[in-house]
Amino acid sequence: MTLPRLNIYRHDRGARALVTLAGVIDPVTAPRVRAALEQCLRDGITLIDVDLTTVDRCDDSGLRVFLDVSEHAAEAQAFLLLHHPSPQTERLLLDTGSDGLLYPMRPGGARPQRT
Description:
Layout (H helix, E strand, L loop, with lengths): L5 E8 L2 E10 L4 H13 L4 E12 L1 H16 L3 E5 L3 H9 L3 H4 L13
Parallel strand pairs: 2-3, 3-4
Antiparallel strand pairs: 1-2
């Protein structure tokens, strides 16, 4: 039996959704992430919190999903917030200048600093 490369959990509270991702975000799994986040917008969610605590790896295909959905959210007057990215994902966000768009958060709410 093959284990899934990515699990997606969603918990709604009014117009806010917590989407917890667990596993790997890559070209194979990125379409599932996109579908889950876009569904939040279609359901009228105005604040999507994405918990990346248990994401082992996120490549540029995952970054593209987050950027696209963030743009779609802004068009719908909604927000996408990333929480607890791994050091690798945090570096990807910083290196591409995407940290300002996606508001990655560290425990305690501190934003990472550019180096």
